[in-house]
Amino acid sequence: MALEDIFSVAGSALNAQTTRMNTTASNLANAATVAGSEEGAFRAKRAVFKSILADQMGDSNAGGIKVEKLIDDPSPIRKMSEPGNPVADKDGYIYLSNVNEMTEMVEMMAASRSYQNNVEVVNTTRQLMMRTIDIIKN
Amino acid sequence: MNMIDNALGVHAQALSVRSRRMELLGLNIANSDTPNFKAKDVDFKSVLQATQTSSLSITNKGHVLLTASGSPDGEMYRIPFDTSFDGNTVEMNVEQAKFGQAAADYQATLNILESRIGGIRKALRGD
User: Fold this and answer.
1) pLDDT for B44-96, tens place per residue?
2) Is B67 on the interface with A (CB under 8 A)?
3) How many CB atoms lie within 10 A of CB B86?
4) Interface of B with A in 6-25 (CB under 8 A)
5) Tens digits of per-residue pLDDT, A23-70?
6) Strands of chain A, DSSP E
């Protein structure tokens, strides 16, 4: 039956969007971290989604969506001369994270809108299902 | 049992097609951020055509069975209005509109079924 499958599809999407929100939160929290080397500097993470086919879902025969991997943002790491900083390297440089707050805020809004869309799908489906069940009543 | 099937007509099948469509649209909305995902939809007209033509029987070798274009369950890829950077063809506003429409269609079919079942129930009760 197809209507129940919508719940698992929308549910997996809610999960994936939550992961995306979590990544954004982690990026924003780490925006101001500094490191003593370019390799050690914090790089913003991005969630990459992948749709799953029906037969990979197990019992349910609907497809769904999952977070395939987290990738590092490729934008360059900025370095700054701050010899007084305890983590500075021998030339007096510290390395800042490559988190862009604007990008993260946009990402957060996009994730939250997608989440809301899927909640709406679940609500509509639930109502239709209840009405279908009501046919056999009275 | 046959009588009940006759009374319900095409609407029982229609309901399952409608719910299949809702599922596909739900899948599109869920995959709105998946790279290279191609949005799909059910073409109701072609499914209806397929059910009608398959009820015709071939009585002569010269008869050709007309099948609807596309896959037998009427699934087709959507042609997007705009192309996107990551190869995803889901357009959220389109999907939302279609989902709302599909939900209304489902309710319409449900209403028809409800009244048919009401009729059967009345006939059975006989009062």
Assistant:
1) 777 777 766 655 566 777 766 555 444 557 788 888 888 888 888 999 999 99
2) no
3) 11
4) 15-16, 19-20, 22-23
5) 999 999 999 999 988 888 999 999 998 888 766 655 555 678 888 889
6) 34-35, 45-52, 64-72, 79-81, 93-96
- Judge contact between B75 and B58, C-beta under 8 A: no
Model ipTM over 0.90: no
The phi, psi pair for B68, rounded to 5°, reads -70, 150
Contact across the interface for A13 and B29, Cβ inside 8 Å: yes
Which residues are CB-contacts of A47 (< 8 A; sequence separation ≥ 6)? A16, A19, A20, A23, A67, A70
Residues B124, B126, B127: CA angle, nearest 5 degrees:
135
Residue of B nearest to A134 (CA): B114
Is the pLDDT confidence value at B28 over 80? yes
Residue type, B21: R
- Residue A134: its H or E element: helix A101-134
In this structure, are residues A9 and A114 in contact, taking their beta carbons and an 8 Å threshold? no
Q: Which residues contact A113 (CB under 8 A, 6 or more apart)?
A: B92
What is the phi/psi pair of residue A5, to 5°?
-65, -30
> In this complex, do A124 and B103 lie within 8 Å of one another by their Cβ atoms?
yes
CA B96 to each of CA A105, B68, B99: distance values in angstroms, whole numbers, following the listed order: 24, 27, 5
Angstrom distances, CA of residue A76 to CA of A44, A97, A121, B33, B49? 11, 9, 39, 25, 57
> Hunting for tokens 């790491």 — which residue is that?
A77
Instruction: Give the C-alpha separation, A44 to A70, whole Å.
Output: 10
Q: Which two tokens stand for residue A80?
A: 């700054």
